[in-house]
Design brief:
237 residues; alpha/beta; Undecaprenyl pyrophosphate synthetase; six-stranded parallel beta sheet; 8 helices; 6 strands; 15% strand; globular; binds farnesyl diphosphate
């Protein structure tokens, strides 16, 4: 697998669609539509920038508590997005998988997820993971249950965690989390995988986040002194 998905793992909390829409006198649904356009641009930009894995937080398990009409509109949007993106992903060498529980998704969406994952499974340039009905704490609980009392290495647990959430590829720690929309929290996103992630919180609302903003974030990541618990002189050598 050497050479496959080599670049950094960037994870994005795409926040601010609703506030952006309200600020422009639009419906929240229009905000999510604009968010989808941004997601498309950022996926393309991430491929160009050499990102190895891009995980986008599209719908948390707690988002089921939103008004029914918004949830239904989001599920429709996800299905349309997946259908629309499959061909482009294939052309760009992007492998697309969905992270999270599947049993509560509408069956039409579940079916589309399986099709798109199969169609793009040969992609080796970038792994795009879209988190839908995702909760890091639930994932950790389910993986811990699957251990059935066994002891395990950190790497072994990471892989088990990935499998628990239907990721057939080996798990990867996150290098950089970007959260748009001005809030500074992780909101139950990849809590295990973010143990040594660099965090970047930006005020820009997700629909206004651009390829140039991603490039700046990656430049920022490259400039950070990542020590993973070591002393500075150990890292410099
Ligand atoms: C958070 O903004 C955004 C969401 C819950 C939905 C995100 C979905 C997309 C951007 C569409 C992308 C889809 C794919 C398949 C990649 P919010 O509604 O919480 O905004 P607010 O905090 O301003 O209310």
């Amino acid at each position: 697998m050497s050479g496959t998905f080599d670049g950094p793992h960037v994870a994005i909390i795409m926040d601010g669609n609703g506030r952006w829409a309200t600020g422009h006198g639009l419906s929240r649904s229009a905000g999510h539509e604009a968010g989808l356009r941004t997601a498309r641009n950022i996926v393309e930009a991430a491929v160009r920038e050499g990102v190895g894995t891009l995980t986008l937080y599209a719908f948390s398990s707690d988002n089921w508590k939103r008004p029914g009409a918004e949830v239904t509109a989001l599920m429709r949007l996800f299905r349309r997005a997946l259908v629309g993106e499959a061909k482009r992903c294939l052309e760009n060498g992007v492998r697309l998988t969905i992270l999270g529980r599947r049993d509560r998704l509408p069956s039409s969406l579940r079916h589309t997820v399986e099709q798109v994952e199969a169609i793009t499974s040969t992609g080796s340039r970038m792994h795009l993971r879209v988190a839908v009905d995702y909760s890091a704490r639930d994932a950790v609980l389910r993986a811990a249950e699957a251990m059935r009392g066994d002891t395990m290495s950190r790497d072994g647990f990471s892989d088990l965690l990935a499998r628990t959430d239907h990721d057939r590829l080996p798990a990867r720690d996150v290098d950089l989390v970007i959260r748009t929309g001005g809030e500074q929290r992780l909101s139950d996103f990849l809590l295990w995988e973010c143990a040594y992630a660099e965090l970047l919180f930006v005020k820009t609302m997700w629909p206004e986040f651009t390829a140039a903003d991603l490039a700046i974030a990656l430049e920022d990541l490259r400039s950070r002194n990542r020590r993973f618990g070591l002393a500075p002189e150990q890292v410099a050598s």
